Amino acid sequence: MKPVAFDYCRPPDVEAAIAALRGAGGAGKLIAGGQSLGPMLNLRLARPALLIDISGLPELREIRDLGAHWRIGAGVTHAELEDGGTPLGAHGMVPEVARQIAYRAIRNRGTVGGSLAHADPAADWPLALAACNAVLAVHGPRGSREIAAAELMITAFTTVLEDDEIIVAIDLPKPRPASRWGYFKLCRKVGEFPVASAAVVRDGEASRVFLGALADRPRPLPGLARRIAQEAAPIDGAALLQAVAEAAPEIDDIDRRIYAACLARALDQAMRP
Amino acid sequence: MTGEVERHDGIGASVLRKEDDRFLRGRGCYVGDIAMPGLREVAFVRSPVAHAAIRAIHKPAGAEAAVFTRQDLAGVRSVQANLKLPGFKPSDYPPLAEGKVRFVGEAVALCVAATRAQAEDLAERVVLDLDELPAVVDALAERAAPSALLHEKWQDNLFLKTEFDKGIAAVAANAPVTVTREYRLARQVMNPLEGKAVLAHWDDRVDQLVVHTSTQVPHMIRTAVAEHLGIEQRRVRVITPDVGGGFGYKCVLQPEELCIAWLALTFKKPFRWIEDRREHLISGANCREHHYRVTAYADRQGKLLGLDAEITVDAGAYSIWPFTACLEATMAGRHLPGPYVVPAYRARTFSVATNKPPIVPYRGVARTGISFAMELTIDAVARAVGREPWQVRRENLVPESAMPYTSVAGNLYDSGNYQKSLDLAVGDIDVPAVRARQARAATSNRLIGVGFANYIEMTAHGTALFAAAGYPFTPGFEQAAVRFTPDGGLEVRVGVHSHGQGMETSLAQIAHEELGVPIADIAVVHGDTALTPFSTGTYASRSITMAGGAVVQACRRLKERLTVIAAHLLQCAPAEVTLRGGVFYGTSGDIPVREVAITWYMYPQRLPAGIDGGGLEVTAGFKPKVDSGQYSYGTHAAVVEVDIDLGTVTILDYVIAEDCGRRVNPMIVAGQTLGGAAQGIGTAMLEEMPFDANGQPLASTLADYMLPSATDVPPIRMHHIETPSPNTEYGIKGVGEGGAIPPPAAIFNAVNDALRPLGAELTETPLSPRRILQALAAAQARRTDTVPA
Fold first, then answer.
1. CB distance B773–A257 less than 8 Å?
2. What is the CATH number that goes with domain B290-463+626-786?
């Protein structure tokens, strides 16, 4: 379990990192916390010719209040989001999701941008930030663009990012005071990737419901989101099973029960006054 | 000797572990820590498929000299580990695959380079030309009809089948209650913190091959390496430095040990291989996989009348040295009745060869499986007769008055009060309170259940047992070499190995108890065949009983010799001298043991005439009066909450009552018991190496293979009983394995107790949400089916 030989560089800023990615012609790989990439290197599943270390870039480490939303640098660690002490303390969901990621040792190093770019279907951020309607700020040699968090992943470990693009920040909309959220994941044990996960944001017409830890990307459940927006009658178990079946028709009956149960817990949390 | 408060550091004292000083400061020294000039690192090419004929192995162009296959290992014998039981089929386990590969992860070639990464680069370039064969994966199906033969000279895929029958037919015909169940335990991976590791080099000065290896059995590895490489045992020295856990994984000869030793012997240079976690998870998925079909016959009160069992063990591809492919199945057959009175008993056992890693005895060995099968069966009987399981359990236990007791299968239980441990657990878990809590939760989606499991732990089984089955080795007398140093300190040299058991402390406590030398002045030396007496090593919960007993013998002879000198110095007769707290008292004076020892070494002119010239260095041996095993035992009790929506289980309460005879160090006993229980909880809740139909292991990282961690182990309350063994020094029995035996049984019984109103029953480890929800769905379907139209 030793990586193949690779070159390593530590660019001084994002522009230099993009240049390094471009120079590597698709054989470069960014590394920040390295909590997923490290094992993949050791297992030789990732075999980059050049490792570009962006963990030291100060421009990726800031959290700024931009009025309607917060801008979270992509290099901010899970632990920093968990611990508060940032403007995000007012956001209930993101610090709580951060707290539930893996183990503290991983949270100390792993970054929000790294987790998104890695695009593990069972990871927390692709699901939670999709539910929060977050938008990713991406830089590349052709300039900057925005990608909705919900649109980032194509499938497992595959995103819409080009080889030479970098997620530099996550724009997180500020929740309205009346909004509520729920997040639930079923893990075999504390710190493990979940068997199933669900995220719910109840915020009037902007309500969103997603399932995570499926085979590919987080799946939206727009019908359920509409019912929540309408504050309709309590949603029963059969309706949840039906919603899961529609969102994830490929899973079997037992998994449908598991996802529906996770969804029920997340909904239960989000529907509290 | 005035005003000193005598500190008790002897037997029964919870002395802090001496070895923890270096471990806690990160100063342990493992094979991976050894630095040696010119050291070359090795990576293995391993089979990517479960079963195939090898057409060719292509070495990378330009690097042929750094890559070795079976053909290159000239003079290395393949391993044969045979039992002398009728019907046992021998097979060869080559150090590198020969002709065929028989499991995913089997070593096929080895690659040598300056660093491990470079060795892995080489390994990637080795091309295996394999002709894939059907994979033999399902032991139960193979038992009935073999699909493909693993070993070509055989007619089927059975290493061995055995049958024992004592009166089952008569009981079966007339029993008022009959209960039949099937049980399955998943294949597991032991996962010691440190995997296997071996470094070998050649020492010209002493004409020796020196093998540093992470093993529990250094002397046995010396024997095995010498025999398989074809050199004299005097030319092999095995050094076992700090070892990060064994659990049985390291009590056998590993093919990699032979390969690395061969390299050093052949090239007279140092070579090392360190198993990484991926290799461990794939090629080390080698334990626990048992299947049981059990029928219990009982009266209407649940009193057992007979037990009929078919026991199928998935033994993997090869027979491992020296415990063979059949230790698990034969032990399961002999011990299934456990602590219970079973008047009639039939056991048919099948050790089935499959395309999986060879089975190795894991902490608890077969008993984790048999406890699971037996204890779940007891609960099933209790449900069938409509009684509290703990009551039915209690009435079937061997009573204290029957001790020593010979079981239906002929095992001699030396001592113990099995009801007492159950009573302690029942009392502490507070069954009435749990039943009340259960009733309150009955209409919720979180159901409560309580479960119990008893176990017996055969420890330090010796000559009689191993000789009867004809294993490749037979443990006899265990020896300890104890000697005073010229400054009055003590060295205790033992051939067993301590890799978590705390024996650097507990054996020192025994020597302290005998001679009164302060613990701080006693060094326990182990882990080097050049420094220690021969021993079959550390396995089967034997070391504290066997090596501890040997330390007692050696210290007593030393005491006799010291007494003669002390009497002379105190100017009285030896019979007038007594030893207390490290001081000899005579008729008119006293002298510390230390001074007596110094006299022998430094002032021989003061010694009496005619003294034993053997001096203060004694090797002495010990064997229990009855060496078929000393039986520790106990009861585990668990209260669980089952979330029937998510299929999850939370352990709410857990109680252990255990008896391992006289405890040398109660803190170490508690630690061993807790550590074992954590592994047992892993067996119950999390651990599973699934294989697909092609024999591919599906959990090749720790993200997929779940191990229990701190958050998965509940606070555990413990009770101890001390029933001394009549056969050992100080009444000591072993304790290393007991904690790992009953947790799956106790937890499953609790889960099944919780799910009883829904008619669901779990009988396969581990308790995954999927298994639980499947059981609930099946029960629901049954209920729907039986609704009258």
1. yes
2. 3.30.365.10
